[in-house]
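User: Structure with FE2/S2 (inorganic) cluster, tokens only please.
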Amino acid sequence: MTNAISVDSSRRDFLFIATGAVAAVGAAAATWPFIAQMNPSASTVAAGFPVEIDLGPIAVGQVIKVFWRGQPIFVSHRTPKQIEEAETADWKSMRDPQPDSARVKAGHEEWLVVSAICTHLGCIPTPHEGNFDGWFCQCHGSQYDSSGRIRLGPAPLNLALVPYEFLSDAKLQIGVA
Ligand code: FES
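Assistant:
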């Protein structure tokens, strides 16, 4: 089952997408927050049903949010500048040191898929805010870079990685079937 969800081409748009077993993103205007409820039920999704994401309509620089296992997940289509900054940053000096290469899949460096839960006290950070073109958490000021790594503020850890795989260049699946 596939349901179309509207997407705005603006890079700052932040879409809120509640997904079912299969979620697809369609091309059309949208405002934030955009909420779409789809089947199966939330309880089924919360149980860990895999979520498929159609990547085609997600513009470069855009971040969407989906739900998997009842948890919000960011899917970020990174710009070349964001990728370069993430790859060249001095990760060894970071609070939770991790190279960008360990946080993305080789050959798909433009896509970052991470938990949308701040590792401080659980707020949801805002994309494209802060000093690192990543995320800014409004609650207590934590800042994450375009690799989702903690760079400033009280959060102790990077945005958590989640299991996913590419089904094709244009589709990924969060969770294991
Ligand atoms: S919950 Fe994000 S900085 Fe405190």
